[in-house]
Amino acid sequence: MIELKGISFAYPGQAQALCDVSVRFPAGKVTTILGPNGSGKSTLMKAACRILRPSAGQVLLDGQDIGAMRQKELARCVARLGQSNQPPAVTVRDLVSYGRYPHQKAMQVLSREDERCIDEALAQVKMEALQDRMVNALSGGQQQRAYIAMALAQDTQALFLDEPTASLDISVRFEIMDLIRQLNAAGKTIVMVLHDLELALQYSDHLILLEQGRVICTGSTQELIASGMLDRVFDIRTRVIEEKGTTFFHFSKTS
């Protein structure tokens, strides 16, 4: 389990981005961090992965302060996939192989175990047939699968994903979210930042709602909706629709 205790952080010359944040990311669950633009979602994720060093507080991984862990040691426990910009001009397999870095010594070539983990990661995202293709020649959805495979090859307990469905067509967003649930069902702890409320409510076990760097509410989809905090923070009205055993969400403005 990953736990943040009293985390605060401010970018130079700016107001506090996180203010005394204490939350848990339950092991074996899909947790999604929600909030308006500028609420501290990505900052919280970066602090949880030690990309950013908080000015106060602790991040604990199974009770151990990650601030005291060596970089490679932490990278063997937690993988983070940020928002990708320009895809590299490398093959899919080469990209996925980068995920094995925490398990290698300096200048070490890929071992049989590395190759096995790469093969397994490609199979998990169904990219075996495209492993020799250049990443920058793939569709957006295929690129995202390749990046997720790279994170899987890191062979960690937890996987952090910052906006994994950004800039993807709507049908591809559902494909990526289905893949994330499959990875979770196979035992991976998932922590995400999402802007898409419908996907967040539909695919998450646990939700964390932020506003201006503070935690406003945590809980399941049902608990978050029942609290009224989701509607207040986003200035919307949420309606839950049950149809043929499937739950849908409809959002409208309050005024």
Describe it.
It is globular, with a radius of gyration of 19 Å. The strands form 3 sheets. A 6-stranded mixed β-sheet has the order 6-7-8-3-9-10, sandwiched between helices. The chain has a 4-stranded antiparallel β-sheet with strand order 2-1-4-5. It is α/β, with parallel strands linked by helices and 255 residues long. It is 32% helix and 29% strand. Strand 4 and strand 5 form a beta hairpin.
Outline of this structure?
The protein is of the alpha/beta class and 255 residues long. Helices cover 32% and strands 29% of the residues.
**Poorly predicted runs:** none
Shape: globular
**Helix and strand element order:** EEEHEEHEHHHEHEHEEHHEE
State the major sheet. 6 strands, mixed
Helix and strand content put the structural class at alpha/beta
Query: In angstroms, what separates the terminal alpha carbons?
Result: 41 Å
Rg from Cα: 19 Å
Number of helices: 9
Strand content: 25-35%
Helix residue percentage: 25-40%
Q: What is the strand arrangement across the widest sheet? A: 6-7-8-3-9-10
